[in-house]
Structures are given as structure tokens and as C-alpha cells.
């Protein structure tokens, strides 16, 4: 089905990239750059799951997998879960059947050490897209962001409103402002991103995998730029 779909878009776009090819994608971008929204769109369009560390660690804890229990021992003692444990959980998740056509990593790797761990464990990545938006613009955007408190779907009061105000389109959950989107906290998060995660751009540039997309004010314009780089070599 996925192959047929790829053929269909290739026909429409006159482009032969992605045909019979898995899309193993890392999405980079500062908090508020629109990465999560683009991940959802790509996920639906290419029929591949979005893997984010928060979600899979919660899953591993809930299912009490051996790695989940290992992570729990660190969390219970108040320590950070080490990179090799996080990346092992990611690798486990990537072996599940829904990843057979590819996957999107969102929020992982977060550091060079995690990227190296991914490489050492043989996780194949064939594209890295960095969505870039100036810090000032991010700060002004974030005040409008809303997240479903049940399923985690993201919305924006002007850019991507829900059909009913403050109610999730997918599950009827309530839409809330995340603690992390508090403007007081956001500049700290941007600093952490620039210090710890942005060096990944050089890391993947040197492997010839990095594509830069300038985040646009209009969501669909960013989506179309992302789509273009996904289909480019
Ligand atoms: Zn929801």
C-alpha cells in the first residue's frame, strides 16, 4: 500500500525518489518551530509512526519491559536515564511491525552522545530535516499553542485551530497550555536546544543527511517545503 502511495505521489509530482524506499527520518527543530505538527502530517502522509522519547519511555515503563524496568531504576533514584538505555528503548520500538515502511524520530536524538549511540546500535537513518525559525518568532508563536490532555495532539489558536474551541478533534479531550510553553520557561528551553541539540546539524551534515527547511508563517507552506526535501536526494 505504501509503495503504491509513493508511486502515486511520484506520478503527481514527477519525482521518482522514495519509490520502494523506507523513510527513516530525524526531525530537528527548536521547541515551537513546528516540528511536532510537521511530524503528524508526515506520519499520516507516508503512513509511518512518530517515535518520541517521552512516549516510548512511558510505554516501556507501563509494559514493564526489561529496558523499561532498567529506566525505572534510574528514574526512581532521581537520576537521568542514560543515553544507551534511552536509545536501546528507541531501537526496540523501531523493530515493531508498524516501522516497516520507516519512522520519524521526534525529540531524539537530543544530543551528540545519543546520535552516536544510535549509530553504534546500527539504526539506519536516511534523512535529517531541521525546521528553523528565529527565536523571537518562536516565543511569540508559543503563546497560542494548545495540546490535548488526553491524546497529545497539538493545535494552535490561529495556525491550526481545533474544530470546537478548546476540544480535541481526535478524542474530545480538553486542550491545555503546556507548562513548557510558559514564555518564562521557553527562553531556557531555546538555550538548551542551541547548546545541546543544534550541534547535531553539523553531525548529520558531515554524513550528507541534513536538509534545512525555513519554517514559514503559513503551516501549509512549511509542509510543502518539508515535502520537497523528503523527495529530494
Ligand atoms: Zn485528543
Describe this structure in words.
It is built from ten helices and eight strands. It has 233 residues and is an alpha/beta fold. Strands 2-3-1-4-8 form a five-stranded parallel β-sheet, sandwiched between helices. α3 crosses α5 (83-94), α4 packs antiparallel against α5 (83-94) and α5 (83-94) packs across α6 (112-120). The longest helix is centred in the last third of the chain and has 15 residues, at 183-197. It is globular, with a radius of gyration of 18 Å. Mean pLDDT is 88; it is low at 1-17. The structure holds zinc ion (ZN). Zinc ion (ZN) binds at residues 148, 150-151, 153, 168, 170-171, 173.
Mean pLDDT, rounded to whole units?
A: 88
Radius of gyration: 18 Å
| End-to-end gap | 23 Å
N-to-C series of helices and strands:
HEHEHHHEHEHEEEHHEH
CATH hierarchy class name of the domain at 2-134 and 201-227:
Alpha Beta
Number of strands: 8
Secondary structural class: alpha/beta
- Helical content (DSSP H or I, runs of 4+): 40-55%
Q: What is the overall shape?
A: globular
* Full CATH superfamily name of the domain at 2-134 and 201-227: P-loop containing nucleotide triphosphate hydrolases
Which features characterize this protein?
single chain, 233 residues, alpha/beta, Rossmann fold, 5-stranded parallel beta sheet, 3-stranded antiparallel beta sheet, 10 helices, 8 strands, 47% helix, globular, disordered N terminus, binds zinc ion
Amino acid at each position: 500500500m505504501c509503495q503504491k502511495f509513493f508511486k502515486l505521489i511520484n506520478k503527481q509530482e514527477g519525482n521518482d525518489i522514495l519509490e520502494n524506499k523506507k523513510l527513516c527520518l530525524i526531525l530537528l527543530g527548536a521547541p515551537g518551530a513546528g516540528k511536532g505538527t510537521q511530524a503528524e502530517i508526515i506520519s499520516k502522509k507516508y503512513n509511518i509512526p512518530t517515535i518520541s522519547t517521552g512516549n516510548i519511555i512511558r510505554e516501556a515503563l507501563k509494559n514493564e519491559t526489561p529496558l523499561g524496568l532498567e529506566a525505572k531504576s534510574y528514574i526512581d533514584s532521581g537520576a537521568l536515564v542514560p543515553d544507551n538505555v534511552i536509545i536501546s528503548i528507541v531501537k526496540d520500538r523501531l523493530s515493531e511491525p508498524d516501522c516497516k515502511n520507516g519512522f520519524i524520530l521526534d525529540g531524539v536524538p537530543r544530543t551528540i552522545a545519543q546520535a552516536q549511540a544510535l549509530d553504534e546500535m546500527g539504526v539506519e537513518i536516511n534523512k535529517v530535516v531541521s525546521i528553523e525559525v528565529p527565536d523571537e518568532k518562536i516565543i511569540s508563536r508559543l503563546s497560542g499553542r494548545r495540546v490535548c490532555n488526553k491524546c497529545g495532539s497539538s493545535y494552535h489558536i490561529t495556525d491550526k485551530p481545533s474544530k470546537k474551541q478548546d476540544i480535541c478533534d481526535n478524542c474530545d479531550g480538553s486542550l491545555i497550555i503546556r507548562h513548557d510553553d510558559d514564555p518564562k520557561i521557553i527562553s531556557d528551553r531555546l538555550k538548551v536546544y542551541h547548546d545541546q541539540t543544534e550541534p547535531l546539524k553539523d553531525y548529520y551534515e558531515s554524513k550528507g543527511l541534513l536538509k534545512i527547511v525555513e519554517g514559514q508563517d503559513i503551516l501549509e507552506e512549511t509542509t510543502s517545503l518539508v515535502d520537497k526535501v523528503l523527495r529530494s536526494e
